[in-house]
Sequence to fold (536 residues):
Amino acid sequence: MGIRVLLADDEPVIIRGLKKLVSWDKLGLTIVGEANDGNELRELIRACDPDLIISDISMPGCSGIDIIREIHQKELQVKVVFISAYQEFAYAKQAIQYGALDYLVKPVIKAQLEKVVARAVALIREETEGERAKEMLDHYERKNRTVTIEELLDSLTDGNRRAAAELIQLGAIAVSRYTTVCLLDTDTDSEAGEGASRWEERERKLVQFALNNIIKETIDAAGNALMFHKEGQFGILVQHETQEEPTRLAEDLHEKINGYLKLNVSIGVGLAVAGAEEADHSYQTALKALRRKYFLGLNRVIQYELNAGFEAAEDCSLPLSGMQASLVKALTSQQKDQIRLLTEQLLHLIRQQAGGSKNVAVSSVYNTILVLEQEMSRIGIAAELSDHGQAPLLDRLSACSTYEGLRREFEAVVRQICERMAHKLTNKEALQLGEIKTYIEEHYAENITLDSMAARIYMNPYYFSSFFKKHTGQNFKQYLTEVRMKHAVRLLLETDMMIYEISDCVGYNNARHFSDMFKKMYGKLPQEYKQAARLE
Fold:
């Protein structure tokens, strides 16, 4: 029997077309099987021992990528040509050619198929049985060595210093002045519509396959690096004599991936250490550098820098809570320039205080939105900011791939509040209400009455009472009591003042009346509340 061929496609009409396109007998080829899905192809490979497979890359059961990986794992000497209708994957042909003979796009053109089949026949005939046996043995040894090296690199970056000596004994690394670990990860920026999409499983395998080969090709050319896989990321251990070599290698690799695969990736370059034994420290700093992509932006090479991402907070006249309160006041009074300024300052402060942590940044923005939501509800603005017809608020914030995306989500919430405020209040009413609330916040310890507040904005007391209830959802006396009790709790927990002193400080000249009001609001007398807080 001549050269054995398997055809595979989930569309029978394609297989019939392939059989007619080429004069298989004249080329000395025999079609020994036809498969309609990946599982059937896998069984035919086992049963028929083919020399050449022409297969659709995407079939039910398992994909062409799965098949070719199994072929390599089992050391089978078989040539593979892929065909597919997936023309949108511009990088597919480039990627598959690392492991397959060629890649053809449907509809298959006769001349192209004849050309690739002829090339396959020539290659197969060149390989004698002795050469095949030698190649299989060499490949097996290389594979075992690669697996061993990867395991040692994984152990080395976990802190096992003895792994360095074993790598030297294997000849995988040599003594060098510096060792640096780089980490590569694919980027997903769904909120910006950039970078890689969230792939289906077949697409993900294809991308990983392509990345693996481009990285290997690049570091083999450099001659001073080893690749490994760790925690779902690609790792590269670089041995070098000058400080700039790892960054230069990372930038070269980044440019190739962007150019050949049209794929966005970030690469973290760790700190250069003296000797491979310290590779775990370089690995940890590479992780920190890679995490900075959240604040710096995606698709770039990021070098580790001491204190990077942990900006020293600039002097600020207000803490975060104070800035939140100022933003509430600006929103209430519809001071648009002030709203924009405070929003920018607040986001800048959150970034500074996050210390390079995405989780801290997300938590701070989330809590700020909840504060705004609570304060807006006090003046009658619908409390629906956290779930305005989309995914839950915290899920949306956590899904942002960058701080810029988080910023856009927060700014959208602030705009929404402004729109609702403008709809709820006229500018005049907003200013009047803001003036009253500001006055109460600053003069709660004084003798404040409904009549005096009405007089401040030139309203009839009865109309003022209705106005206040309409726009805050509370009557005036209830609101004033809540403000006073809020400050009473602060003084109770943060100072050693006596109860009668606190009573006087928050506008009550009768300590007994103050205690009764406090218990009515919090369910405990002031002293009981303080003792309970200390026990928690």
About this structure: Residues 320-424 form one domain. The mean pLDDT is 85. The longest helix spans residues 129-157. The CA atoms of residues 331 and 421 lie 8 Å apart.
